[in-house]
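Run log, item B.
One chain of 336 residues. Sequence copied directly from the ordering sheet:
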Amino acid sequence: MRIEIKKYVLQLQHPFGISRETHVTQDTMIVCLSLNGKTGYGEATSNPYYNITVESMKAEIESLQQEIESYDFDTPEKFHAYLKGLGLQNFTLCAMDLAANDLYGKLQGKPLYEIWGTNTSKYPITNYTIGIDTIPKMVEKLQEKPWPVYKIKLGTSDDVAIVRELRKHTDSVFRIDANCAWTAEETLRNAPLLKELGVEFLEQPLKADDWEGMKKVKKECVLPVIADESCIVESDVENCGGYFDGINIKLTKCGGLTPARRMIQKAKELGLKVMVGCMTESTVGISAIAQLLPQLDYVDMDGPLLLKTDIAKGVQILDDGKLIFPELPGSGIQLL
């Protein structure tokens, strides 16, 4: 195998605000994994909340590059276990695992969803995210992108007022993501008002470790609650079972498609709804997420829609949220 690492600075269409930060660009690392004339592509974005930079991920791979390139590649699952044994942290592991899965599919001549025994005749439509901004600006973002399902980032002093104003401009489904900004009391106070405004569910309203608060919310909340920051790795799925109605899996945080597939299976065994979310990835990361769609209840894979310029071709998101899957096997990715 041969490894090549590329860094990109993705320019966003608008400043992207959540409860704890706002940014106008997104650094991302693309891993190119080549074998027998085929190249697989994987992605992991930087993230200040988890102290991850492209430079730190790149340094991890380069410190083990000779050892990794000498590995006798067989399946992505075996390769993932090997890389985990080398001590790669999850963001770096994700980029490598996505590249390995894309490569494997290309070597097999089949898309990943087909290799996994699923088909794309039915799949959930991705939401489009409206980041925190002034209310007029959030309305402007919504009107600029008519969409069937919106995820609205909250965590301000005017959260219900924001949703009330946005509701005046669309009949689309709303999902709310507070990114740990609320207390249990705020959540239970806001939820009935938000339900009346057509909100489908709440994502991670409380701090990731506020299990006592989530116990109260789970018992009393009138809206379903989906875990995000409380569900990072495989072992977290079972922990979330008694506190949430579903989980949002992020490939970058859990370490790639390989563990994500196991998390999906475990969540279904526990009766939890399953969502996969993105971290403002390009089409490289989003095309990998799309391979999981037949297994999901919800998906947040709007990364390319938030960018000024994409860096790859792969799964294409149409204006009504439907997808065009590429003829190229694996995840179907080509760098531009």
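Observations after the first pass:
- The longest helix spans residues 90-108.
- The CA atoms of residues 287 and 315 lie 5 Å apart.
Flagged for discussion on Thursday.
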